[in-house]
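Continuing the series of single-chain predictions for the mutant panel. This is the parent chain; the variants come on the following pages.
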Amino acid sequence: MNRKQRHLIFERLQAADPEPTTELTYSTPFELLVAVILSAQATDKMVNRVTAALFPLANTPAAILALGEEGLKHHIRTIGLFNSKAGNLIKTCAILIAEHGGEVPADRKSLERLPGVGRKTANVVLNTAFGQPTIAVDTHIFRVCNRTRLAPGKTPLEVERGLLQSVPPRFLKNAHHWLILHGRYRCTARRPRCPECLIRDLCEFRDKTPEPTAT
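Parent structure:
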């Protein structure tokens, strides 16, 4: 895929959705951090249902710590891996209070030191909460980039590096959200919705879903 194709892809995605954002519900960087940690192996809708009940009771590191690990488990028990997520969140809250004044740090090194926070989670927080031009490669972005040949790679890190090198600078801040939403609702895993895709003519995927046959 050449530079012109990449530029056209993001021009079209931008025209269709000028201000993309996460589908996780949050109002502070800390709420976003909690939601992203909870979202591992869970849908955004599931997480939003849990945080809609949790955040009115506890939406700061101190308030989460006050719940205690068992108390937190009670609130997030419908989420997959809730035992380990509760433990990580309690430890993370303690670190935020002890080392960052209860605030979420805006640098990768500090974020990745928090229990339950890997590169993908750090990228989401840096991009969505702090407006940094990072790209968190989840399963949707990995699939889209390899199918379209926008930034093919064998690992999420390879895809991330490819995107950072090839996405036109003015699109970098929002590229993360456009690609996730495209993979979630158009370039789906089992049967991509190619006939209604905005970038079908620019995509290099060979096995495009055909147009429905007229009867």
